Amino acid sequence: VDVYSRSHRDTNPQEVGSHWSSSGLNGEYEIGDAENVNPGTKIVLQLKDSASEFSKEDVLERILRKYSNFVSTPIYLNGRRINVIEPVWTKNQSEVSDEEHNSFYQYLCGNKYDSPRYTFAYKTDAPINLRVLLYVPNWKPSIFDMARDSDNGVALYSRKVMIMNRTEVLLPKWLRFLRGVVDSEDIPLNLSRELLQDNSLIRRINRLVTVRFLKFLSQQASRETEKFISFLDDYGVYLKEGLVIEGDQELREEIAKLLRWESTALPPGQTTCLDEYANRMHSGQRNIYFLSSPNRQLAESSPYLEAVRKKDPDIEVLFLYEPYDELVLMQLSQYDKKTLTSIESMIADDMANTDSVGSERQNCLKQDEASELVEWAEKVLGSKVKKVKVTQRLSTHPCFVSVREAGAMRHFLRTSLADRPAEERYRVIEPILELNPEHELVRYLYNLVHASKDSEQSGDYSLAISILNHFYDTAMAQAGLLDDVRGLASRTTDLVEKLVGKTK
């Protein structure tokens, strides 16, 4: 490397310049005078044969555009200026037009057909010097985009010089859908990828930008609700991912504030946030209740919703239609000092409900009849259940299973217990089958059991076993705890055949 330099203050053409030279070995260098040096600085690089590509104009242009496209000083390559794009993030944002934002966004994305859905601009000089310009794309991410474990599309700059094009530490992984620039004069130009991983300044920038962006989204939710709902439809899964993987509860709650679900208090298609739910809570209510279900129709016909509404008809329950939504709220655990509770867990934890049967009820099993049915059912089901009991919490459903931490059990069943034997899964889940003694089918089952108690080889006894297994299968399926679909189909067919045979 040879560096020739002469001060611009030297007006005498006879003045000599300075020459600095080094081969890069052992840190040694030489300094001396140099004649015929023009004012300014000239750097001459002697390339190795293996680095000859850096003598090509197109390679140099690509490097200059990548790292120095926004520096204030004009850069010329063979007489042609390279850095002609203006750094939009340094301008007063009130003076930047939508056309300028569109052009800059398309430059960042390399997609001239897309435009930003949201534009977030933020600047501060204390405690960190920071200029931030982030864009939310208009395009809807595909399932492959969501699954892609790549660095985010936000570049790190220092004084308009790019330090790193993409980095996984500048913003959280779950914000990888963003495109834009973060520029800070506090970042040294020689910051390496290794130092970037363990740099307190970068961590502070990460936290500050993340919190500010979440507040920006919260403002958008209030100003343009329909547009924000559309954003959630496309990018909500990223926010939910962030809620699950973030370790800071305060940040989790900031993310949760943005999410929306349907509710028993609202008509189908209309969603609500946790703050709105909290505003509608009854005096003395401490929990936010939710129910996981594939769709609204199944949610409203759920035996669990029926059970809690029988106890409190005015209780509001959020409907979670995506399987991972339940995991999201389980991970959140609390919001604004209110406990997030699945109504299934609420039922399982409700110890006030007993096995007794009201003697004054009409069309209901008597206490001794209920005891006989429960004893028989526990014998038949064996290790499939922790116990069988009668319940007063149902009106239209014949039964359901109650499981402590049902949501966690569903997740555990799909992951850790997926390939385990059925007996082991039952032992971990410990389902309690609760029978409605007022339901016509339960009373019919008791009559079959009682009539055939002295003859286990009779057709009635075999039919009773099939009906009980069907009760159990449907209850486990409604709880999302049944993965033996083929077995369910086979047992249902067997039950229908027995019922048809009985009517002949």
Automatic annotation (TrEMBL):
The keyword ATP-binding applies. Residues 1-24 are annotated as: Disordered. The keyword ATP-binding applies. This is Uncharacterized protein. Coiled coil: none annotated. It comes from the Eukaryota. One of its GO terms (molecular function) is ATP binding. SUPFAM superfamilies: ATPase domain of HSP90 chaperone/DNA topoisomerase II/histidine kinase (SSF55874), HSP90 C-terminal domain (SSF110942), Ribosomal protein S5 domain 2-like (SSF54211). InterPro entries: HATPase_C_sf (IPR036890), HSP90_C (IPR037196), Hsp90_fam (IPR001404), Hsp90_N (IPR020575), Ribosomal_Su5_D2-typ_SF (IPR020568). Residues 1-12 have a biased composition (Basic and acidic residues). Gene3D superfamilies: 3.30.230.80, 3.40.50.11260, Heat shock protein 90, C-terminal domain, Histidine kinase-like ATPase, C-terminal domain. ATP binds at T41, R193. It comes from Schistosoma mattheei. Residues 13-24 have a biased composition (Polar residues). Belongs to the heat shock protein 90 family. Keywords: ATP-binding, Chaperone, Nucleotide-binding.
